[in-house]
Amino acid sequence: MTVAAPARVGVVACGALAVHVRAIAKRRGWALDVHPLDATLHNRPERIAPAVSELLAALRPRYAALAVAYGDCGSYGALDDALGEVGVARLAGENCYEIFAGDALREALEQEPGTYFLTDFLARSFEHTVIRSLGLDRHPELRDAYFGHYRRVVWLAQRPTAATRAAARRAAELLGLPLEERAVGDGGLERALERLIAQATAAPRAAAAPA
Q: Do the Cβ atoms of 31 and 49 come closer than 8 Å?
């Protein structure tokens, strides 16, 4: 008897999570196609929901099931409203820091509310996604306007290599803040992604978008 291969799931992913989502999918043998959006959208969170909606519409004819690997990410519910209109689920969580770290994030904020968080991706891409994207390479005097209320940087390390540690240290230096490292791995993302994919494949979206 021939058994049909499982339908592939199209996943619209935050650029900061896409590499991890692909790695987890490969490790778990999940049939996912990951379609990333530029991580610099986080600097303009009002653009996240429209960008996700546009990409979902483009992918709709290709997949029986779609999912979104984003937290709310500062959209203040706009992303959930957009996804609710098309029946697509996203990762549970406010942002990628919470998805990765869970209780460790809340504990860090209880210890010091003025904590700026890094993930591996953000540490490695900091000069592009933060410094240049915010114009601080051209106007370094704006650093305190953006980051003056922070008191420390906490690197939530998924894979604490020497190279990423050096990048995290460099990011903290650019902000003029002390660095702390907390190894959190990618288990939180894996569990959240597992729930998301189960939800997406249990109730695939309708073949056509709502009128």
A: no
Q: How far apart are CA 153 and CA 4, in angstroms?
A: 49
CATH of 103-183 given 3.40.390, 3.40.50, 3.30.300, 3.90.75: 3.40.50
- Distance, in Å, from the CA atom of 136 to the CA atom of 132, rounded to the nearest integer, reads 6
Q: Is 112's pLDDT higher than 70? A: yes
**How is residue 16 annotated by DSSP?**
T
Domain ranges across the chain? 9-96+187-202, 103-183
Distances in Å between the Cα of 24 and the Cα atoms of 29, 30, 31, 89, 151 are: 8, 8, 11, 18, 33
Angle in degrees, CA 44, 93, 91, rounded to 5: 90
| CATH dotted code for 9-96+187-202 | 3.40.50
At 42-100, the pLDDT tens digits run 888 899 999 999 999 999 999 989 999 999 888 889 999 999 999 999 998 888 899 99
* The domains spanning 9-96+187-202 and 103-183 adopt the same CATH topology: yes
